[in-house]
Design brief:
Strand content: under 5%
InterPro entries: Anti_sigma_zinc_sf, Znf_put
Keywords: Transcription, Transcription regulation
Radius of gyration: 13 Å
Order of helices and strands: HHHH
Protein name: Anti-sigma factor family protein
Structural class: mainly alpha
Length: 79
């Protein structure tokens, strides 16, 4: 099973939540979340944001809103 870094996990969260990863990648994400408190917080914040937005497909969000959200999540993870 691939062991993901925190940066790699950030890039995979959307695909993980959309069930778009193959099983080995899903297992790797789950293994990382099982041992990284910071990424669990990031994951929960991402899920909360999706819930607050009503889970619109990404293509329905204006590009500038989608880009700002993704930047905010990435910046928060780095701090």
């Amino acid at each position: 099973m691939k062991r993901f870094t925190c940066d790699e996990l950030v890039e995979l969260i959307t695909a993980y939540l959309e069930d778009a990863l193959d099983q080995p990648a899903r297992d790797g994400v789950q293994a990382h979340l099982a041992c990284c408190e910071g990424c669990v917080r990031y994951f929960e914040q991402f899920r909360a944001t999706i819930g607050a937005l009503g889970d619109p497909p990404p293509e329905k969000l204006p590009a500038d809103v989608r880009d700002r959200l993704m930047s905010a999540f990435r910046e928060r993870r780095r701090s």
